[in-house]
C-alpha cells in the first residue's frame, strides 16, 4: 500500500484540524445539525449527506481539506448560510465522494468597519470587511449602527458568503446596484492551496500593487470569474472587502425601511 493510499484510508482526522471534522459514518446530533440545508424540494432529500462536514477555524484547515480532496478524489462544496435551494452547497452522496466546507465558525464570521483606510489611500471613506459566515441581518444592522449601508437581499438568515457571489439582488438595486457592485477585494484559497487577495481592477490600491508587480498574474480574470461564476466555483473565499454608502447622503435608504 502506498503512503497516499494510507492517507486516504485513514480519512480526515479531527486531531489534525483546528476546527471540526464531522464524518457521515457518525450521523450523530451534531452531524444532523450541520447537515441542515434550505431546499426547494417538498422534503429534505436524505441523500444530501456529505462524507465529511468541515467547520474550519483557520485557513490552514481549508488548505488541508483541499489537499486531501485532491489526493483522495473528493469533490468539495462550500456553504455559509445554506440557502442554495437546489442543494448545490451540499453533497448528494449517491453521486460520488464529497466534502462540505461550512464557513460558519467564529473565524469566518467577523465583521469590521474601517474609516479612511490608509491601505486604500482613503479612496473610500468607509470600507467593510466581512467573513462569509456573517448573516445579512448582522451585516446590515452593524453597518447601520455605523451610519453606512451596502445594498443586498432582504432575508436576514442568508449569509454574505453565497450572497456576495450570486449578485446580491435586493430592493435598492435600481438606485444603488447590487451587493456584488461594492466588492473591491476578496481573499481566496485556490485549488492549489495558495492564498491570494484579489482586487477589483481600477482602484488606487490595485494600480499601486500592479505597478509593484504584487498582484496575482490572473487577478482580473479571477475577480470576474469568482463574482460571476457562482459560489464555490473557483476556490474558497474567506473574506470580502466592500466600499459603503453613508446614510446621511441618502436619507431613509436604510434597507429595513424598504419593507
Topology summary:
Elements lengths: L2 H8 L9 E4 L5 H7 L16 E4 L3 H14 L2 E5 L18 E5 L8 E5 L10 E5 L5 H10 L2 E2 L10 H5 L8 H4 L6 E7 L5 E5 L4 H8 L7 H10 L7 E8 L1 E2 L13
Parallel strand pairs: 2-4, 3-4
Antiparallel strand pairs: 1-2, 5-6, 6-10, 7-11, 8-9, 8-10
Which keywords apply here?
259 residues, 8 helices, four-stranded mixed β-sheet, alpha+beta
Describe the structure.
The chain is built from eight helices and eleven strands. The protein is an alpha+beta fold and 259 residues long. 39% of the residues are buried. The longest helix has 14 residues, at 59-72. The strands form three sheets. The protein has a five-stranded antiparallel sheet. The protein is globular and about 60 Å long.
The major sheet is characterized as: 5 strands, antiparallel
Determine Rg (CA atoms, Å).
19 Å
Strand order of the largest sheet: 5-6-10-8-9
Strand content: 15-25%
The separation of the N and C termini measures 62 Å
How are helices and strands ordered from N to C? HEHEHEEEEHEHHEEHHEE
Please give the number of β-strands.
11
**Mass-distribution shape:** globular
Q: Give average pLDDT, whole number.
A: 91
Amino acid at each position: 500500500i502506498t503512503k497516499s493510499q494510507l492517507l486516504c484510508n485513514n480519512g480526515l482526522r479531527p486531531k489534525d484540524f483546528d476546527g471540526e471534522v464531522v464524518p457521515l459514518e457518525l450521523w450523530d446530533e451534531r452531524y444532523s445539525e450541520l447537515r441542515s440545508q434550505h431546499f426547494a424540494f417538498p422534503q429534505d432529500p436524505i441523500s444530501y449527506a456529505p462524507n465529511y462536514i468541515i467547520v474550519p477555524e483557520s485557513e490552514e484547515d481549508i488548505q488541508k481539506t483541499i489537499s486531501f480532496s485532491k489526493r483522495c478524489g473528493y469533490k468539495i462544496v462550500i456553504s455559509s448560510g445554506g440557502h442554495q435551494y437546489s442543494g448545490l452547497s451540499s453533497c448528494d452522496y449517491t453521486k460520488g465522494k464529497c466534502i462540505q466546507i461550512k464557513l460558519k465558525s467564529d473565524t469566518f464570521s467577523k465583521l469590521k468597519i474601517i474609516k479612511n483606510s490608509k491601505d486604500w489611500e482613503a479612496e473610500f471613506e468607509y470600507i467593510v470587511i466581512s467573513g462569509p459566515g456573517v448573516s445579512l441581518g448582522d451585516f446590515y444592522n452593524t453597518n447601520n449602527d455605523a451610519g453606512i449601508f451596502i445594498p443586498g437581499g432582504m432575508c436576514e438568515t442568508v449569509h454574505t458568503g453565497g450572497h456576495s457571489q450570486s449578485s446580491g439582488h435586493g430592493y435598492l438595486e435600481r438606485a444603488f446596484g447590487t451587493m456584488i457592485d461594492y466588492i473591491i477585494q476578496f481573499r481566496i484559497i485556490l485549488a492549489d492551496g495558495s492564498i491570494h487577495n484579489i482586487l477589483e481592477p481600477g482602484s488606487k490600491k490595485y494600480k499601486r500593487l500592479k505597478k509593484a508587480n504584487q498582484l496575482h498574474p490572473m487577478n482580473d480574470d479571477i475577480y470576474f470569474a469568482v463574482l460571476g461564476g457562482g459560489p464555490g466555483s473557483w476556490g474558497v473565499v474567506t473574506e470580502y472587502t466592500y466600499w459603503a454608502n453613508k446614510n446621511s447622503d441618502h436619507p431613509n435608504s436604510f434597507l429595513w425601511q424598504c419593507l
